[in-house]
């Protein structure tokens, strides 16, 4: 049974500006695993990656019905990819999580659908 759904869209230029002007921005959003991947990327791909993770974590918070802050932190969620490149998200919540991330030159968008693990 679906227990939550969330979607988020972010302008790529906002993420790039934040990353370039706030030294710790990426470290606040990304887990150490994600940060290592981020640092290995070059050019525009680097900001696509960061924007996609930002949107995915915002979408997860919306699906859970909580804000990022007291109940859920950026580092409570980690996004990885399976062997075929499909992204998945881990969190302390007991739900099956379906995640989709996409980008254009100007935007990154992510959608999360949460299912109860007993369905």
TrEMBL record:
It comes from the Bacteria. GO terms for molecular function: holo-[acyl-carrier-protein] synthase activity; magnesium ion binding. Its cofactor is Mg(2+). One of its GO terms (cellular component) is cytosol. Residues 5-110 form the 4'-phosphopantetheinyl transferase domain. Keywords: Cytoplasm, Fatty acid biosynthesis, Fatty acid metabolism, Lipid biosynthesis, Lipid metabolism, Magnesium, Metal-binding, Transferase. InterPro entries: 4-PPantetheinyl_Trfase_dom, 4-PPantetheinyl_Trfase_dom_sf, ACPS, P-Pant_transferase_sf, Ppantetheine-prot_Trfase_dom. It is an enzyme of class 2 (transferase). Its EC number is 2.7.8.7. Mg(2+) binds at residues 8, 58. One of its GO terms (biological process) is fatty acid biosynthetic process. It catalyses: apo-[ACP] + CoA = holo-[ACP] + adenosine 3',5'-bisphosphate + H(+). Transmembrane segments: none annotated. It is found in: Cytoplasm. It holds the Pfam family ACPS. PANTHER family: L-AMINOADIPATE-SEMIALDEHYDE DEHYDROGENASE-PHOSPHOPANTETHEINYL TRANSFERASE, PHOSPHOPANTETHEINE TRANSFERASE. Belongs to the P-Pant transferase superfamily. AcpS family. Belongs to the P-Pant transferase superfamily. Gsp/Sfp/HetI/AcpT family. HAMAP family: AcpS. This is Holo-[acyl-carrier-protein] synthase.
């Amino acid at each position: 049974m679906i227990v939550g759904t969330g979607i988020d869209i972010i302008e790529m230029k906002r993420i790039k500006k934040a990353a370039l002007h706030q030294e710790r921005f990426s470290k606040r959003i990304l887990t150490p695993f994600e940060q290592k991947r981020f640092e290995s990327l070059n050019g525009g791909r680097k900001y696509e990656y960061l924007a996609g993770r930002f949107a995915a974590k915002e979408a997860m918070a919306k699906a859970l019905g909580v804000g990022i802050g007291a109940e859920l932190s950026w580092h409570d969620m980690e996004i990885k990819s399976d062997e075929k490149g499909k992204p998945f998200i881990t969190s302390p919540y007991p739900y099956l999580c379906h995640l989709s991330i996409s980008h254009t030159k100007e935007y990154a968008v992510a959608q999360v659908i949460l299912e109860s693990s007993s369905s």
